[in-house]
Specification:
Blueprint (H helix, E strand, L loop, with lengths): L3 E2 L10 H7 L15 H21 L6 E4 L2 H15 L6 E5 L4 H12 L3 E5 L9 H7 L4 E5 L13 H11 L2 E5 L11 H4 L3 E5 L10 E5 L25 H39 L3 E4 L9 E6 L4 H10 L2 E2 L15 H5 L4 H4 L2 E5 L6 H21 L20
Parallel strand pairs: 1-11, 3-4, 3-5, 5-6, 6-7
Antiparallel strand pairs: 2-8, 7-8, 9-10, 10-12
Helix pairs in contact: 1-8, 2-8, 3-4, 5-6, 8-12, 9-12
Length: 400
């Protein structure tokens, strides 16, 4: 049976080149990067060389890069670290309603610690309005955290504009760029961001390693205590092999990013136009153009996404209904609900995450395979195009 992976927003396969770069540090070069002898020195050189590579990829300085265990840790480090380090200034944090749970639940934790959090709304495309960010900032605000691009629908936020607002107000700005690094060019200086999160396994590096950019001068507390690693900003023995794999993956992505972005955009549009031509009652989620190259999120009315995922999986195609971190829940996507999609319609959402292995043949296979699955599920549904769809559960969509 043909096997096609279209869930690259959840994770990407480890590149062979990244694995090869890692292997020496899993075998003979096993030293602790904090040790003073030659074994440790060689490990330290590898870590610092990767720090230079990551910094160059972001337009940052090497000393501004902290290696972490994942994107979630990077988000926690940024939000908790800034909030607690600047509590003497204020106790107010601003974020959006469509953030990854790594941000939302961290903000909810802060609320239990006496912080006040403002959750900004988004428009029907999932965009945050920079003017609303400005209006929400008070003299007690210490941090704004808005993701660079949404992990579910792919909408790209006006990060530079939001950063400008924060700079003018004297407030730190953090962006979760986990879905963007390796897909689109990033220059932290031009963007004006103070903190930026990334994760290696989203751009063909290994799982279990990420990084956080912290602009020089940002007042931030460490998340982990118990060691001097990362210049005292993250206590833990460095995952040398993982860090090296991250560096190789980001290096390779920089060289192919522009061409790959164009290719994935073409594939994405081929998939979407093909679906619309073959399936009725299918709607695009997110901004039609201001979106990640390989991300396509659509809603199929009258059925639930879980059934579609299972049907496609039996046909050898892997997709998801949203964030991998919330895939076990049957609740409608908080992102789609925040965008104004009715819960009954949001339940039928599917996210295609296209990547470097995907081809036109893969897309055409999905276009052949998916319509019969949709037809079969709708035939079994109590709500279908052939039966009355309750008015109160009908789609409250824009332009439909």
């Amino acid at each position: 049976m043909k096997r096609i992976y279209m869930d690259h927003n959840a994770t990407t396969p480890l590149r062979e080149e990244a694995l090869e770069a890692m292997l020496p540090y899993l075998r003979e070069e096993f030293g602790n990067a904090s040790s003073l002898h030659s074994f440790g020195t060689r490990a330290r050189r590898a870590v610092e060389a990767t720090r230079e590579e990551v910094a160059a990829a972001l337009g940052a300085r090497a000393r501004e890069i902290i290696f972490t265990g994942c994107g979630t840790e990077s988000d926690n480090q940024a939000i908790k670290g800034v909030a607690f380090a600047n509590r003497d200034k204020g106790n107010h944090v601003i974020t959006s309603r469509i953030e990854h749970k790594a941000v939302l639940q961290t903000c909810q934790y802060l609320e239990k610690q006496g912080f006040r959090v403002t959750y900004l709304p988004v428009d029907e495309y999932g965009l945050v309005n920079p003017d609303e960010v400005a209006q929400a900032i008070t003299d007690r605000t210490v941090l704004v955290s808005v993701m660079f691009a949404n992990n579910e629908v792919g909408t790209i936020q006006p990060v530079a504009e939001i950063a400008q607002v924060c700079r003018e107000k004297g407030v730190y700005f953090h962006t979760d760029a986990v879905q963007v690094v390796g897909k689109l060019p990033i220059d932290v200086v031009k963007l004006g961001v103070d903190l930026l999160s990334l994760s290696a396994h989203k751009f063909y590096g290994p799982k279990g390693v990420g990084a956080l950019y912290v602009r020089k001068g940002v007042k931030i507390d460490p998340l982990l205590h118990g060691g001097h690693q990362e210049r005292g900003r993250r206590a833990a023995t460095e995952n040398v092999a993982g860090i090296v794999g991250l560096g190789k993956a980001i290096e390779l992505r920089l060289g192919e990013m522009e061409v790959e972005a164009k290719r994935l955009t073409t594939l994405r549009e081929r998939l979407y136009t093909g679906l619309v031509a073959r399936v009725d009652h299918v709607y695009l989620n997110g901004h039609p153009t201001q979106r990640l190259p390989g991300t396509l999120n659509v809603c199929f009315e009258y059925i639930e996404g879980e059934g579609i995922i299972m049907g496609l999986d039996l046909a050898g195609v892997a997709v998801s209904s949203g964030s991998a971190c919330t895939s076990a829940t049957l609740s409608p996507s908080h992102v789609l609900l925040a965008m104004g999609v009715h819960p009954a319609v949001a339940q039928g959402s599917i996210r295609f995450g296209l990547g470097r292995e995907n081809t036109e043949e893969d897309v055409d296979y999905v276009l052949e395979t998916l319509p019969p699955i949709i037809e079969r599920l709708r035939a079994m549904s109590m709500f279908s195009p052939q039966s009355p769809f309750p008015e109160e559960a009908g789609p409250q969509r824009w332009g439909h």
